[in-house]
Amino acid sequence: MTSVFHRAPRAKLPVAVAGEGIEIIDSKGRRYIDACGGAAVSCLGHGNQRVIDAIKKQAQQLPYAHTSFFTTDVAEALADRLVESAPDGLGHVYFTSGGSEAIEAALKLARQYFVEKGEGQRRHFIARRQSYHGNTLGALAIGGNAWRREPFLPILIEAHHVSPCFAYREQRADETDAAFAQRLADELEHKIIELGGDTVAAFVAETVVGATAGAVPPVREYFKKIRAVCDKYGVLLILDEIMSGMGRTGYLYACEEDGITPDLLTIAKGLGAGYQPIGATLVSDDIYNTIVRGSGFFQHGHTYIGHATACAGALEVQRVIEEDGLLHNVQARGEQLRALLRAHYAQHPHVGDIRGRGLFVGVELVADRTLKKPFDPAFNLHARIKREAMKHGLMVYPMGGTVDGVSGDHILLAPPFICTATQIDTIGARLVDAIHDALASMNT
Ligand code: PLP
After folding, report:
1. Which amino acid residue places its CA nearest to atom 9 of ligand 1?
2. Atom of ligand 1 nearest to the CA of 136
3. Core vs surface per residue 297-332: b (16+ CB within 10 A) or e
4. What is the tens place of the pLDDT at every residue in 171-180?
């Protein structure tokens, strides 16, 4: 019996008792390689002494001070650091306690910005199908995953969805990347026109799609074209890098690789690397100045925003990433992992696509590789892979509904940035075994 209301109350979970490097150890002494960082969170692995010491020091000095009374040196230092490395024009940081809160802040900032500018008619949000932006009601409304939204539809705010930039599923065989990107940008433009150009507040997208589709990077030029459409209609661009940001793709901010700057950018997960719960919304100078010179007050706030101990942990995480040169390792090890899986699965009938950026890798499973036909969702292949992987001492983050929120299976890998080449080989080998065993279990 347990008093904890677990995510899946009928599941029997092992008890995690310790963490060491890239491994988590359970109460029976079993070790699991954390090849997904939980949910792309633990980017420094477990037990990083520098981060632990920084948290201890802050907790001893001052664990928390409410942000309506005080600021703290650690919050200021972390915000400065995030802004210094952010794309130009994102000059301010609104701290939160996690990802969904960062999205809620972004949506409300977008709305309040337009209210203060005298454009109160801007109320529509457009996002993409097969996206995930969090589980609070605002974030869930914006998200485009049918299965997650379905039970709550009657209580969600209105949101509109366009096609994702999902090359494996949506790009036509005879379509170049540029033509595909243009088609999607045109679709967004048509949606804005349909809603009324001056009634749309923002377009929201994950720079690299995470949980719902499995590490799907945009094709080149996609975000440049999207940025241009947003600019044409005065629509804000909100990029969600809660999963793909903070170094996961080999760049501190994933959109650096796409050569654009959003108006609002959300981060979480890797920001605190799991050592402390923390998220943030980076805000453009224009939005910040409009509010500061207008009402002078963002009508929002939570008790734990700017939490001193969380900021101290996140600040040290960021220092470790820079001082240990981990972004180079992310790129090299990510290439290694994709190359290894592509070589192994070059002819495999049930591995349709291997994709991603940096140490953010997706593997999509299909019943028929030529037709890209998904498995029957009743097989629950993704759940079988997770189960078999745990037996092999491997944590991966599989999900169903890859194609349309209902059918399709993928596995998300997001190993810690500290992984060595040998550890990547081990992850690859264990994953191959887990996929093999899961597929075999469907025939028994
Ligand atoms: N946005 C993206 C892209 C995510 O992957 C997630 C979590 O998986 C969230 C938002 C929500 O973050 P949190 O679970 O910290 O609320």
Report:
1. 134
2. 16
3. ebeeeeebbbbbbbbbbbbbbbebbeeeebbebbbb
4. 999 999 999 9
